[in-house]
């Protein structure tokens, strides 16, 4: 399983005065088992980019390959693609519609034409995977809290058993506790279930602890595509495009500037703690 | 697909038409509509068409953009043309199976098609070149005399402007919801009519919920800023006629006179 974007360009409202390029010459390769953070400021084209990956949007020019096959090909089974590349949109309100949560999660697998038994089995499994409380199974999804709604939305996509799960700002509008819960859940899906994850965010702090690779977008272009450590070295460039390195990076760089011999490449809170303890216990 | 709907949309660009007073444009659209129903011969339609083409040219709105909106009403157009074509009694030209096509029918159908296309193009040109706010101000000002007979003019125009403002928002929302459901393999395009209607439920439920939520938020925001209807409300930018507006009125009157004169001629 792999996704390749080859020289992908996308222009909105192509033949009007409002025409603007949303993506310019994007080349990305995504392999099975990766955990990727897709970072960019609002309007940098990250949402447009992920919609190319499951065929919701067709590139103006360039090609998207899934497992070596061109997804714009009329022969290509786009329905099957959408089951394999699960996309969870930012607002759960955009997809919840059923009278109870369980039925809502059944919607995806039912569209795949599975038997009723299989559909319900998958829905149950998915709701369990996202840590959804049994008590809420038959409640209206509209009565839930923001975090719970998001869980149902993720379960709704998980129930199709995707190989890749793309999440568009899954932590937007959540409190710190809810944020950590959702991110922990996503990490669990990657580590235990083995799903390839693409996490879209505008916050480095969200992704730094979890991902193995960061893709930074600015004005429709890929600016950086590397392991977190390398990306965070470009602190100035990140700031100039309205982003920032994680807070620990700043702390470490300040310490270094004040004359302490710390390793400035640490990216997570735990690493930073160990590093500081190491230096100060000398 | 949804982006094709240009109804009530504003197209941002610089032009003489954009700068005209909204009242001129509302009156102008009305005059144009009256004119195309008054003229009754080919020359009249040619003049109306020319007038419309001139306005489109002056407005700087790309022709392609205007006609993109036409696609969505194509079906309506076809139905009215076909009904006129086949169901008008008169001098038969030729017969296909049991259906007679008459000369009168052909004429009527052509006339209907031209009128409908002009009508829709003309009125969408008004909304394309006028911001919803301006449109409301203009409408309110024109309808002001009706206040004397206790018509809630301000409230009507406020509702209209909100409705216009919400069209693009709800279209965008529909687009997003559609994508979110398509990501879960929803199918909006194939199947029988009944199935397709059923498949709309996952789209309509979130859309209605969101529309209600937005309406409530808006009501709250208006209340928070002490909105209490039109009584004693002043404008930050009152409408004032400029020289161009007066010229436009003269052009409109000329256009109407020509149309009436030509429309009455018999050939």
Can you characterise this structure?
The complex is a heterodimer of chains A (282) and B (267). Chain A is globular, with a radius of gyration of 20 Å. The relative contact order of chain A is 0.14. Chain A contains 11 helices and 10 strands. Chain A is an alpha/beta fold. Chain B folds into 2 domains: 1-130 and 240-267, no CATH class; 135-233, no CATH class. In chain B, strands 1-2 form a two-stranded antiparallel ribbon. In chain B, a hairpin with a 2-residue loop joins strand 1 and strand 2 (99-102). The longest helix of chain B is centred in the middle third of the chain and has 30 residues, at 153-182. Chain B has 267 residues and is mainly alpha-helical. Chain B: It holds the Pfam family CbiQ. Chain B: This is Energy-coupling factor transport system permease protein. Chain B: It is a multi-pass membrane protein. Chain B: It is found in: Membrane.
What's the multimeric state?
Answer: heterodimer
Identify the overall geometry of chain B.
flat
Task: Give the neighbour order of strands across the main sheet of chain B.
Answer: 1-2
Number of strands of chain A: 10
Shape descriptor of chain A reads globular
Using CB atoms under 8 Å apart, which protein chain pair has the greatest interface? Answer: A-B, 29 and 25 residues
Which H/E pattern describes the elements of chain B?
Answer: HHHHHEEHHHHHH
Query: What is the helix/strand order of chain A?
Result: EEEHEEHEHHHEHEHEEHHHH
Biggest pleated-sheet summary of chain A: 6 strands, mixed
Task: For the record, give the distance between the C-alpha atoms at the N and C termini of chain A, rounded to a whole number.
Answer: 48 Å
Instruction: Write down the Rg of chain A.
Output: 20 Å
Helix content of chain B: 55-70%
Number of helices of chain A: 11
The rounded distance between the terminal residues' Cα atoms of chain B is 44 Å
Please list the strands of the largest sheet of chain A in the order they lie side by side: 6-7-8-3-9-10
What is the strand content of chain B? under 5%
Query: Please, how many domains of chain B?
Result: 2
- Could you name the ranges of chain B where pLDDT drops below 50 across 5 or more consecutive residues? none
| Average pLDDT number of chain B | 85
Summed up, the helix count of chain B is: 11
